[in-house]
Amino acid sequence: MNDKSIHATAAVRVPNFEAMLDPYPEYAALAAGGPVRVLKSHVGVTYYGIFDADLARQALRDPRVSKSAAAMQTALDRQGLEAASAGFPISSVKGSNLLNTDPPQHTRLRQLVNLSFSARRIELLREQVERLVAEVVDKLRGQDQVDLVSGFTYPIGLTMICNVLGVPSADRGEFRHLATQSMTPGAANQAECKGRLLQYLAGLVAAKREAIDPDVPPDEQPDVLSAMSASRLASDVLTDEELVSMSFLLLIAGHETTVGLIGNALILLDRHIDQRHRLIADASLLPKAVDEVARFDGPVHQTTMRATLEDVELGGTVIPAGNFVRVFLAHCNRDPKVYADPDRFDIGRAQAPNLAFGHGPHFCLGSFLAKLEAQTAIRRFLEAFPDYRLAGGGDAIEWAGTVVRAASRISASLSGRPT
């Protein structure tokens, strides 16, 4: 298919996949029309969707498929759109962050936080994660009918990223509200909440800067925001706007995805009781199980938008300069060319690398932490409540409908008794 034939066909309007109980049949129907399709999102953004795993990897490492703020703005202007209402709440933040830059600027920013999210550093956090999960599980004991999001997944995801980044405990309830509304395209108060959150972060960054001990190097600071503030004071490698923008990205991306990963795991282990029993019998399967959850129904179904800097050919399709591109990670993670029997949930699967945490320069910085939290949460939860069941079938789940595939409510019986 060439560029001319694509533009002769109207863009296919697609729903909010993150709010659907089961979007996979929709993905398959779209992919049947070709590996690269012209689509229009539920908030009115026209873009090229990629449904093939090989083409996805190609696009995600192609420097002509850009994440820069300038490239995104050019593509937005072509369609007469505003970034926040078009579903780009993070990439539209004033100031550079990992999500709105390309190398070498992206490389500079990533190096500043890489040590805080390295595999070695995450291992040092294992005791803290274990303690937190144990406390959250203990609060559930003696209850039966619970919401696993408010009672389990959210306290873990939010508390841990706030601990890592240095957000005071007293501020976390308000942060949750502001973060959720900021990440919900079309929410009536999205712009207001995003503004309030950025204002809060500016104040937090200023407080961190005031508390910095100049004799302590950045990599020995107590939290990531302090480390970035220390880097700013030591060498001016970050501007104040970049500090706030990076804080916004890390706080939001660092908890919403983990909440989704843990919640999706509990949903899948309810739907596949045989796999739950297998995992209870053999806890050594936990790393594979979390990888399989991420592949089969991870929290990030689609990449954030990218924009072409020049004409780019993918799989015989020419995507003209100044157009948006989005990879359908969830569908690519079920590509039969890569995965045998891809629609089967199998926690013992011989793993091929999946795209759940992205690919290329923008591979998820917090993947080690997310996997550690998920493995710990699932193990502890199954030890305490091996017979849990979701209450009410499909009605037990409400999907948040943000840019992350995560439930806002999961009703469950911890004893397994029917409601």
Notes on the protein architecture:
- The protein is built from 16 helices and twelve strands.
- It has helices at residues 3-7, 24-31, 53-60, 69-79, 105-114, 119-124, 126-140, 148-165, 172-182, 190-211, 224-235, 240-271, 273-281, 286-297, 329-332, 367-384, and strands at 12-13, 36-40, 46-50, 65-66, 145-147, 306-308, 312-314, 317-319, 324-327, 389-390, 397-399, 407-413.
- The relative contact order is 0.18.
- Strand 11 (397-399) and strand 12 (407-413) form a beta hairpin.
- Helix 7 runs parallel beside helix 16, helix 12 crosses helix 14 (286-297) and helix 14 crosses helix 16.
- The strands form three sheets. Strands 1-2-3-9-6-4 form a six-stranded mixed β-sheet, with helices on both faces.
- The protein has 419 residues and is α+β, with helices and mostly antiparallel strands.
What descriptors fit this protein?
419 residues; alpha+beta; Cytochrome p450; 6-stranded mixed sheet; 4-stranded antiparallel sheet
